[in-house]
Amino acid sequence: MRRLVFLIASVLVSGLFLWLALRDVPHQEIIENIRQADLGWALIALVTVGLGLWTRAVRWRGLVNYKVTTMQAFHMLNITMLLNQLPLRAGEVARSLLATRSGVPLMTAATSIIVERLLDTLLVVIWLSVALTQAPNAQPDAVRLAVLFGAAAVAAFIVLIVFARYPAIAHRILALVERLLPFIKRLNLGRLLDHVLDGIQPLTHWRSAIHAIGWTIISWAVSAVTFCCMMLAIGIQDNVVLMAILSLTLASFSIAIPVSVAALGPYEGAVRLAGDAAGVSQVLSTSAGFLSHGINILGYAILGTIGMLAMGISLGDVMKASESKKEESADVAAAEPGGG
């Protein structure tokens, strides 16, 4: 029953965002723009989608202490991206379970994903803040808010690294907060804090930090190139780099919305919003949103399928294992103090 409710909610959310993205835009022009898209640029974009996933696999391999080969990490990441297109978003759980087959401790795999998300979020926030300052049609209030948010993200990142290096400080601060607000103890934040700080531990060592941060920058640079190719494929010539970076960063936030079908709707709406800020026509930006989304999903589908074949697993196997792990985690959380 829960799955059915989640699926219905995902369809409704995607439908709502699609309506918002397509309002006041001639549908026939969008279809025509996509049909006339430059095939050469589109194919280059498809190739760079794979290249971007490869760079992320190299980063993740370092975060799991090189216990998997680069090719294994690549296949696991591709399977993750494929599964994340489904409403239940089981990709990250599946990656953690697949990693254990190669000798990676489950906690190491899980905490490595925390580091990935932290670094990705930090870079996206910084890029968005900088890009909005260059956008001709960005609202001044939005620019100021983005810059403030970017500065806050950098400060929070530094604080987390300090806490990971000296966890006793973090626990003392949490204990102080719990004394001032006793009801917070019911949330069992100490356990969550330990998981987060354990995940960030690799960033407290300079070699692993350089590896993770360096490959994060490389992977997002490749993604920016991918979006540039998509913009050129659809015929966007002016402010193409700015449009690509705004689309990339805003689309990244839209993908984070958990209730949707393959981020369909939120993604297109994000690219249209990027076009409004960059001074690109709504027809072209909306067309670019559908084209880029389609190319990304195609790349994930191809590479994810190859990954499952290479690892000798089926989609059903991965989904069953992921669901079992989710239910097991929920049972453990409920049994612990403060778990509900």
Structural description of this entry:
With 340 residues, the chain is mainly α. It has one domain (29-335). The chain has 14 helices and no strands. Helix 7 crosses helix 9 (189-200). The radius of gyration is 21 Å and the shape is globular.
Question: What features would you highlight for this structure?
Answer:
single chain, 340 residues, mainly alpha, 79% helix, disordered C terminus
Layout of secondary structure:
Layout lengths: L1 H21 L4 H9 L3 H25 L6 H14 L7 H10 L5 H29 L5 H26 L1 H14 L8 H12 L5 H29 L5 H16 L10 H13 L3 H30 L3 H21 L5
Helix pairs in contact: 1-12, 2-13, 3-4, 3-10, 3-13, 4-5, 4-13, 5-6, 5-14, 6-7, 6-9, 6-10, 6-11, 7-8, 7-9, 8-9, 10-11, 10-13, 11-12, 12-13
